[in-house]
TrEMBL record:
It comes from Arcanobacterium buesumense. Belongs to the RelE toxin family. It comes from the Bacteria. PANTHER family: TOXIN RELE. This is Type II toxin-antitoxin system RelE/ParE family toxin. The keyword Transcription does not apply. Keywords: Toxin-antitoxin system. Signal peptide: none annotated. InterPro entries: RelE/ParE_toxin, RelE/ParE_toxin_dom_sf.
Amino acid sequence: MSTSPHTYRVFLTTRARKQLKKMDRFDAKILATWIKNHLEGCSDPRAFGKGLTANRSGEWRYRVGSYRILAFIEDTTITIEIFSIGRCDSIYSN
């Protein structure tokens, strides 16, 4: 997919890649497909997620079934950095 100056590119951190690899293949495929269809190349990544508050200010959360994707949105570089992927009951604990 070619990117124009106003579309976002998605990057997964090493931690997020490991989390995706460890989960069930079916769930991992659903999450990877969701990321590709909703975030990669989009013009407004905030439309699909929710900004977090308090000690997680600046982070964004995306809900995909019982999973959560946590990311930073960088407007200056037009990128979305996904740093954590996991089930909703354990994603917010470090």
